[in-house]
Write a structure and sequence with these properties.
Number of strands of chain A: 0
CATH architecture of chain B: Up-down Bundle
Chains: A mainly alpha (101), B mainly alpha (139), C mainly alpha (501)
Largest sheet of chain B: none
CATH topology of chain A: Helix Hairpins
Low-confidence stretches of chain A: 90-101
Strand content of chain A: under 5%
Structural class of chain B: mainly alpha
CATH topology of chain B: Methane Monooxygenase Hydroxylase, Chain G, domain 1
Distance between the termini of chain B: 69 Å
Mean pLDDT of chain A: 81
CATH class of chain A: Mainly Alpha
Shape of chain A: elongated
Strand content of chain B: under 5%
Structural class of chain A: mainly alpha
Number of helices of chain B: 7
Low-confidence stretches of chain B: none
Shape of chain B: flat
Number of domains of chain A: 1
CATH class of chain B: Mainly Alpha
Oligomer: heterotrimer
């Protein structure tokens, strides 16, 4: 049996669906956030697999761009989560930083 | 790629999982089970834990980590340029220089804005004490 | 790169330079907004000017594709396109951006030393939004989309100490990233089905469709559907609108107008670019879906707007309904682009103006704007009261206001082209009938706003006079709403040339 590009596409579709389900079902901010990363990376898998299959390089370049976008999203998303977290129990965090000097 | 090429990897995976499961099972079966509160504590000797070990880090760690991630990943565009800089020529070099200048400017802004200050609170306290003329106290 | 090759990307370059200059000036010369404010204003104005130059270039020497990689064997695909769509979009985005920036000026003053960051985020987002409509490459469209979205997530949460702002930012981030991921997966599947990421140019998706008969369209259909869902999310078309009311309500009032207006402009322009121009051969496949989206948006937006008690939420749901009316125009395929442009460019000014008035009433850093805040506005501040009345009348689609012309234009367009499903020669007549009914139902909440403004004020104090930039923004919006309602012909003439190639 040969591993064709279809396998990769199916795997990517499965990962993407898991990610989408995670965003919609889970209620933990960080896990929802990880699910979005999963979705973006499954798209990367699709891009690279198709690119290899068709002998084109556009898909691989696209994957690079997606990686950078994902990093930017991570940064902003984590910042937002941290900002909310800090706001909700600001007293607690202040205490901690005081104790640690 | 033939599916049969993956056979060694599959065997290796099975072997790894099997070994882990087997060791846990064997230790469960052979070891005497006689738990006491002291034995169940994370550290049997030393200070008694006061709080949940999963504690919150000061926010400055996140800040540094985020800055690292963003500048780290931006660099992958340099790899793309590096593998074919001959084909891109001077225009490519110009583009990369502009790109780097943008990154440097954002870094300069972040720096100036104080995001790289490691311990703002202590430094401010120190400055205040110095300003009030009680340098001996601070030292 | 030839000498004149900068014009197609002039809009983005001006805004990027502006954003960097604002940060640099703030670092070097000090955080006083008198130093960097003019730089930002110049950047917005320069961007609009770049749009005008592009428009002139397109009308004299025609549209063109640019930045095709030379000497690199694999990529014959152009990265930038300059045509009627992108040039008109540049003008509208530049002007709306400028007015929106003026409307956000009070907010900029309130955030103090973080002002340069807010302004440079606005500049960057505008560059990203124009990138979405000025490129034939699907990945670059995604890049532009994300540049704008990520900036807007931060702008929505800019007042992080306010509960509403932080929550709004988080919701926007989660649902927005979900939408971006869906759009990107759509791009990947389209790439898998057609073997190209370029809408037109060498080896493009258009070439693929003209040379290939698709027998198993499964992956292609999934890709198109996902891209459509992603864009529908961004323009807040129902049933993908859930984020809009929360985000509009929670985000700082001074900046909501900018965010809401510009993202709609770019979203619909990208829709016209990808589906109207790129996937023009598949028009019978996607227009029925757009029609359903339009119908759901009109009904959901109008009905839910009726029951809101917060003006920002009300305007958010009204925005959902307006997305439906604009999508109605797009059911005509690429022939709907002029009507889409007329609607979206006038509506954008109404949104900016409306939120600017709200920011003078409840404070530019406010989260919630209950309807009672507007009580007796006409007495408390006749200027703001009357201008807001004009803007709201424009949104409601009353005759002699721009909203009316826009709706008529959109409805006429939707019936001008034969529809594939249900197959007939009169286009989407059922959709137009629904649109008219919903416009009438919608009058109820628009007149609720106006009625509140004309009621007797409680013992509320006289409204504090707003700053000059904000007043200017509101006046411009109201004037445009009225002017293009009475004399719409110049704009109609212009949008007839604002086609994608």
């Amino acid at each position: 049996m040969t591993v064709t590009v279809t396998w990769y596409l199916v795997l990517a579709a499965a990962l993407f669906s898991m990610g989408a389900a995670g965003v919609l079902i889970r209620r933990n901010a960080l896990i929802m956030f990880m699910s979005i990363e999963l979705m973006l990376n499954s798209v990367n898998l699709t891009f690279v697999a198709v690119s290899k299959h068709l002998g084109l390089i556009e898909g691989q370049v696209a994957a690079l761009f997606v990686m950078v976008i994902a990093a930017a999203e991570v940064t902003v998303g984590l910042a937002i989560i941290v900002a909310i977290f800090r706001f909700r129990s600001s007293a607690n965090v202040d205490e901690l930083s005081e104790l640690r000097g | 790629m033939e599916l049969s090429d993956y056979l060694p990897i599959a065997l290796m995976t099975l072997l790894g999982i099997g070994f882990a499961v087997a060791s846990i099972l064997v230790s469960k079966l052979l070891a005497p089970s006689n738990p006491t509160p002291e034995k169940l504590a994370p550290y049997e000797c030393g200070i008694v834990p006061l709080q949940d070990p999963v504690e919150r880090f000061p926010v400055k760690f996140y800040l540094v980590a985020m800055l690292f991630v963003i500048f780290d990943v931006e660099i992958i565009f340099l790899f793309v340029w590096a593998v074919s800089y001959k084909e891109f020529g001077w225009a490519g070099l110009g583009a990369v220089v502009v790109f780097m200048l943008m990154l440097i400017e954002t870094l300069a802004y972040v720096w100036k804005r104080g995001a790289l200050e490691w311990n703002v609170a202590r430094r401010q306290r120190y400055r205040r004490i110095v300003a009030e003329g009680h340098l001996e106290e601070a030292a | 790169m030839q000498g004149g090759a900068w014009l197609p990307i002039a809009f983005e370059v001006v805004l990027l330079v502006g954003a960097l200059a604002v940060l640099l000036v703030a670092v070097v010369a000090g955080r006083d907004r008198r130093f960097w404010g003019p730089a930002a204003g110049l950047a917005f104005a320069g961007a609009a000017l770049a749009g005008v130059l592009q428009w002139r270039e397109v009308s004299t020497s025609g549209a063109g594709l640019f930045f095709t990689a030379q000497g690199v064997s694999f990529a014959k695909s152009p990265m930038v396109v300059m045509d009627g769509l992108s040039a008109f979009g540049a003008i509208v985005l530049g002007l709306v951006g400028f007015v929106g920036f003026l409307a956000a000026w009070d907010l900029v003053a309130k955030v103090g030393r973080r002002g340069p960051e807010l302004v440079s985020l606005l500049l960057l987002s505008l560059a990203g939004l124009h990138m979405m409509m000025a490129t034939p490459n699907l990945v670059v469209i995604f890049l532009g989309l994300e540049t704008a979205s990520i900036s807007f997530y931060v702008v929505a949460g800019f007042l992080r100490r306010q509960k509403g702002s932080a929550e709004s930012s988080f919701k926007y981030f989660l649902l927005g990233s979900l939408a971006s991921a869906l759009f990107l997966y759509g791009v990947a599947l389209t790439f898998a089905a057609t073997g190209s990421l370029t809408l037109y140019g060498g080896n493009s998706i258009r070439d693929f469709f003209s040379s290939t008969i698709v027998t198993q369209p499964g992956i292609l259909l999934a890709g198109m559907a996902l891209m459509l869902v992603g864009i529908a999310f961004k323009v807040s078309a129902a049933p993908f609108h859930q984020w809009a009311p929360d985000v509009y309500q929670g985000a700082p009032t001074g900046a909501v107008g900018f965010m809401a207006a510009t993202v709609k402009i770019a979203g619909f322009a990208a829709l016209a670019r990808i589906f109207g121009a790129g996937l023009v051969s598949q028009v019978d496949t996607w227009t029925p879906i757009v029609a359903v989206l339009a119908a759901v948006s009109m009904v959901v937006g109008t009905v839910l707007a009726l029951v809101q008690s917060d003006v920002k939420r009300m305007l958010a749901y009204s925005g959902v309904a307006h997305a439906g009316y604009i999508l109605t125009a797009m059911t005509a395929g690429v022939a709907g682009v002029p009507a889409m442009w007329f609607y979206v460019s006038t509506y954008a000014f109404m949104v900016v103006g409306g939120f600017a008035v709200l920011s003078t009433v409840s404070g530019s850093d406010s989260s919630k704007v209950p309807l009672d805040d507007l009580k007796g506005l006409v007495k408390r501040s006749p200027e703001m009261g009357w201008l807001m009345t004009f803007v709201v009348l424009g949104m409601s689609g009353m005759p002699f206001f721009a909203g009316f012309v826009a709706k008529v234009f959109s409805f006429v367009t939707a019936t001008a082209v034969p529809a594939p499903w249900p197959a007939n020669d009169h286009g989407y007549l059922w959709l137009v009938v629904l649109g008219v009914v919903m416009s009438v139902v919608g009058l109820a909440f628009y007149f609720r706003i106006i009625g509140t403004m004309f009621s007797t004020p409680d013992d509320q104090a006289e409204l504090q006079e707003a700053g000059l930039p904000v007043r200017f923004a509101v006046i411009v919006s109201a004037v445009i709403t009225v002017a293009f309602g009475i004399v719409p012909w110049p704009l109609i003439e212009a949008v007839r040339d604002a086609f994608p190639i």
